[in-house]
Amino acid sequence: MRLNAVTVGTSKPRELAGFYARLLGAEVGKADDDWADDDWVEVRVPGGFTLGFERERHFRRPVWPAEAGEQTASQHLDVEVDDLDEAVRHAVACGAVPAGVQPQEDVRVLFDPDGHPFCLFLG
Predict the structure, then answer these.
(1) Among 55, 80, 82, 85, which residue's Cβ finds the most Cβ atoms within 10 Å?
(2) Residues in domain VOC (predicted)?
(3) CATH number of the domain at 5-55, out of 2.120.10, 3.30.720, 1.10.1060, 3.40.50?
């Protein structure tokens, strides 16, 4: 078995795929003809990994850190970087927002445009 993709639920698959394509230096593509253009979009990340973005009709923005009674983040992506400060600047320029809580010195938590947290960490 090999893991080759992660699918992220979103209310706007194409827009969120565009964000991650800019962030990761990848391209946006359609999975296949079985899906409507606005319901499923893929980003093929250099190195062979795929991020899928699937429309969730009742998407609720996650809250992180978790709060009782709120929609919590079900996953987050960890992105290895060489220069943390430069990577944060790039992510913000792409549309990310730094989290108010930064739990580690060598990791930065940010939110994508849908509110999913992701981490940049020094490799």
Answers:
(1) 55
(2) 2-123
(3) 3.30.720
Closest CA to 8 of 78, 88, 76: 76
Show the tokens assigned to 47.
């190195």
Residues 25 and 44: their CA atoms lie apart, in Å, by 10
Going by C-alpha positions, the residue among 42, 122, 27, 15 that lies closest to residue 79 is 122
Do 14 and 21 meet the contact criterion of CB atoms below 8 Å apart? no
Q: Could you tell me if 48 and 4 are in contact, meaning their C-beta atoms sit under 8 angstroms apart?
A: yes
Strand partners, 7: 52
